[in-house]
Specification:
It is a single chain. This protein has about 575 residues and is of the alpha+beta class. It has three domains: about 15-235 and about 400-450, BirA Bifunctional Protein, domain 2 (2-Layer Sandwich); about 250-380, YbaK/aminoacyl-tRNA synthetase-associated domain (YbaK protein, Alpha-Beta Complex), CATH 3.90.960.10; about 470-570, Rossmann fold (3-Layer(aba) Sandwich), CATH 3.40.50.800. The chain is built from 16 helices and 31 strands. Strands 3, 7, 8, 9, 10, 11, 12, 21 and 24 form a nine-stranded mixed β-sheet that branches. Strands 16-14-15-17-20 form a five-stranded mixed β-sheet. Strands 28-27-29-30-31 form a five-stranded mixed β-sheet, with helices on both faces. Strand 11 (about 220-225) and strand 12 (about 230) form a beta hairpin.
Length: about 575
């Protein structure tokens, strides 16, 4: 494509709305433009990058035996009512009513639609297994869309669904998809990790996320330094400590005037935060629930939600805590508490700890579980830290930030049972199909790749994802030799199937160089004064700035070799 005839509206200044590198560079490079909050138009180069991702995804999904289809984005609410998700999914599900007063929604995911299809078409065990996928636009009405393509409301996603006759076959389908995902993200040139994950609103018995490691990631990961263990912090298990064996001391109420915060209380009482237990109150689907964690720990809300079987949990503010307990924030404790109480494993192993006294300006010393208060359940409820040992081997953990680009779920029979998607086995008995689902954020991959691959001058695309493989600069529009050579190279590269952007604009060389770096195209061929002086053109590698001087007739062969090598190594 010729730059002079293309819509590539590069920007010199960074738009004020851009918070992270990928958002900033996608806007500056003219890849996307904002329509409204969380919704973007993909301009030609942005769409070209997305198509590169789609091609890799399709090739690997097809190689794994999946079949592509395309389902509607508009979904009838009746299907969601069958699974109970219409009310449980939350405000991210955009609901509307058509002219016939029929409720519908814009699809954030397609479990109900694909299950409805399968229950109509699959009759016998002979029809199984099946693995069906699509690449399609999704919509989730995020309350705070941000970071450009990283967390938008409308986005492009690949979602696949497997259907098997039993658990063993479903586990094999899961394994095949897991390996296909590893191949997809490797081919995309990403530094990624598969990690154990929470299944969230999708449900299912277990799942893994595929995380691109990046400082701007919204997810926190823990990775073992010794074994293969890696998990999202929402899922990462904290090993239960051994119970303390010190003798129980007599409980004592002490005055702590105006001392509410953990550090202040600890200083006043001469104790460490590890000797204090916080009582934190959450709203769980309309019910107030208190959680006990050590003074230097934080509650992991996803773990709490899963323990309670709640659709959502949210920490209560000071007024709501007082309304629920009658105690000002900072003085709440478990002794005599009137609301449901759950306890973190670490607290259950402690002896003689300090808590709030359930009265303003008072705390209690030498509080002990079971002796001094009742509780509903003990569980792993806290956020893991890098000081915790690996739950698998006990080695040191590291904590990193990551961007979720893929998620695989073992769904089981939850959807198929609810929607009566059954098949007849060899004995003629009806059984629910066993399902799995597998998602990839296609548009998010482009953003994640930029988060991992950029410098002060712009994007540095991996070859497999670059919208164009070569940018060809004509720096002598008025020079016949330069122009003829540049035009000949453009036609030759195109004829060999190379994706080339030909910068034939009447612009200063400096502007062309800056735009080439900004766009992140892996190879830059410059036809300029070196041709007329020395009979060579310059081939520059974007990733490391290395420049090769090559005779024009050797350029295409060299570029084809570099592209082939990059694709093999990705």
């Amino acid at each position: 494509m010729r730059f002079s005839r293309s819509l590539i509206p590069t920007l010199k200044e960074t738009p004020a709305e851009a918070e992270v590198a990928s958002h900033r560079l996608l806007l500056r490079a003219g890849f996307i433009r904002k329509l409204t909050a969380g919704i973007y138009t993909y301009l030609p180069l942005g769409l070209a990058a997305i198509r590169k991702v789609e091609n890799i995804v399709r090739e690997e999904m097809n190689r794994a035996g999946a079949q592509e289809l395309l389902m509607p984005m508009v979904q009838p609410a009746d299907l969601w009512h069958e699974t109970g998700r219409y009310d449980k999914y939350g405000p991210e599900l955009l609901r509307f009513v058509d002219r016939h007063d029929r409720e519908s929604c814009l699809g954030p995911t397609h479990e109900e639609v694909i299950t409805d299809l399968v229950r109509r078409e699959i009759r016998s065990y002979r029809d199984l297994p099946q693995n069906l996928y699509q690449i399609q636009t999704k919509f989730r009405d995020e309350i705070r869309p941000r970071f450009g393509l990283m967390r938008g409301r409308e986005f492009i996603m690949k979602d696949a669904y497997s259907f098997d006759a039993d658990d063993a076959a479903a586990n094999e389908s899961y394994r095949i998809m897991f390996e296909a995902y590893k191949q997809i993200f490797t081919r995309c040139g990403l530094d990624f990790r598969p990690v154990e994950a929470d299944s969230g609103s999708i449900g299912g018995s277990f799942s893994h996320e595929f995380m691109v490691l990046a400082d701007t990631g919204e997810d926190t990961l823990v990775i073992c330094s010794s074994c293969d263990y890696a998990a999202n912090s929402e899922k990462a298990a904290v090993a239960a400590p051994k119970p303390e064996d010190s003798p129980l001391l007599e409980i004592e109420k002490v005055e702590t005037p105006g001392k509410r915060k953990v550090p202040v209380v600890c200083e006043f009482l001469g104790i460490k935060p590890q000797e204090l237990v916080k009582t934190m109150v959450f709203d769980a689907d309309g019910e107030a629930v208190a959680v006990l964690v050590r003074g230097d720990r934080e509650v992991q809300e996803v773990k709490l939600k899963n323990l309670l079987g709640a659709a959502d949990v949210e920490m209560l503010d000071d007024k709501a805590v007082f309304d629920a307990t009658g105690v000002p924030i900072g003085y709440l404790g478990p002794v005599g508490i009137k609301i449901k109480l759950v306890v973190d494993n670490e607290v259950a192993a402690m002896r003689n700890f300090v808590t709030g006294g359930n009265e303003k300006n008072y705390h209690m010393k030498n509080v002990n579980i079971r002796r001094d208060f009742e509780f509903a359940e003990v569980a792993d409820l806290r956020q893991i830290t890098d000081s915790d040992p690996c739950p698998m081997c006990g080695a040191k953990l590291s904590v990193k930030e990551g961007i979720e680009v893929g998620h695989v779920f073992k769904l089981g029979t939850g959807y198929s049972t609810a929607m009566k998607a059954v098949f007849q086995d060899k004995d003629g008995k009806d059984n629910p199909v066993v399902m799995g689902c597998y998602g990839i954020g296609v548009s998010r991959i482009v953003a994640a790749a930029i988060e991992q691959n950029h410098d002060e001058n712009g994007i540095v695309f991996p070859m497999p994802l670059a919208p164009m493989q070569v940018v060809l600069l004509n720096l002598g529009l008025k020079d016949t030799q330069i122009t003829e050579t540049a035009e000949a190279l453009y036609k030759e590269l195109q004829g060999k199937g190379v994706d080339v952007l030909f910068d034939d604009r009447d612009e200063r060389p400096g502007s062309k160089f800056k735009d080439a770096d900004l766009l992140g195209i892996p190879l830059r061929v410059t036809v300029g004064k070196s041709l007329t002086k020395n009979g060579v053109v310059e081939l520059r590698h974007r990733i490391d700035g290395v420049v090769e001087e090559i005779q024009p007739e050797q350029v295409t062969v060299r570029i084809l070799h570099l592209i082939k090598t990059a694709m093999i190594n990705s």
